[in-house]
Amino acid sequence: MEQNTIIQLGDELFNALRNCRTVAPLTARHPEITIENAYHIQQQMLARRIEQGAHVVGKKIGVTSAAVMNMLNVHQPDFGYLLDTMIYNEGEAIPMSGLIQPKAEGEIAFILKRDLMGPGISNADVLRATECVMPCFEIVDSRITDWKIKIQDTVADNASCGVFVLGDHAVDPRKIDLLTCGMVLEKNGEIVATGAGAAALGSPVNAVAWLANMLGSLGIPLKAGEVILSGSLAAMFTVKAGDNLRVAIGGIGGCSVRFY
Description:
The chain is of the alpha+beta class and 260 residues long. The protein has one domain (56-259): Fumarylacetoacetate hydrolase, domain 2 (Alpha-Beta Complex). It contains 7 helices and 13 strands. It has helices spanning 3-19, 26-29, 35-51, 66-72, 123-129, 151-156, 204-216, and strands at residues 56-62, 78-83, 87-88, 93-94, 103-112, 130-140, 161-166, 182-187, 190-196, 227-232, 237-238, 244-249, 253-259. The strands form 2 sheets. Strands 1, 2, 3, 5, 6, 7, 10 and 11 form an 8-stranded mixed beta sheet that branches. It has a 5-stranded mixed beta sheet with strand order 4-13-12-8-9, with no helix packed on it. Strand 8 (182-187) and strand 9 (190-196) form a beta hairpin.
């Protein structure tokens, strides 16, 4: 794919984000697009956001659960960047005016206390580098019309990242079982999803190690102080104005958010 096409598509996705509108799937218009091309498009979109004053505060891992892998018919995770403009606090209300077609996922967030630079990062390295883990919501949002995405579409669109909410508690990851910890997710007081840590690539720690090694192969570190979203523990679901969400993860705590 030519560089000018990569720039054009990255700018198109940036403008869709800024104007809260969608665009036709990139893969429908450019069937030759590769995953590597898509990451270059993602970098162009990210550069435009940084030009507008946003700052990188972490990374997210996507396509970690079987449900999402089946939806996209791919069997590998992807990653995107978290910016300071995406952060909401526990219990805070999120305006729908800034989102397009949002869906919610319950996840475990890792807060790093030291850099992780692959390749060769093990699960033990991840745990040593983690200050704490927290319950969180990732509100994913696609700039691709009707979520008609293939893996290249979501990668280019910053892994379909919208905003995220960190919960009300932080715990030492060495003091809990991140593999078996259970998640219960409620929407307007009714349980809509359940899951466990194992849903994210077999363990959220596996997911963070994968990310550190993947980025390390590209010369990019995970940095001390960054937030790493380790992937959904259940299928994502649509949210709308008036919805109230609450997630509880065993041994870690809870997180709530509402939309208006």
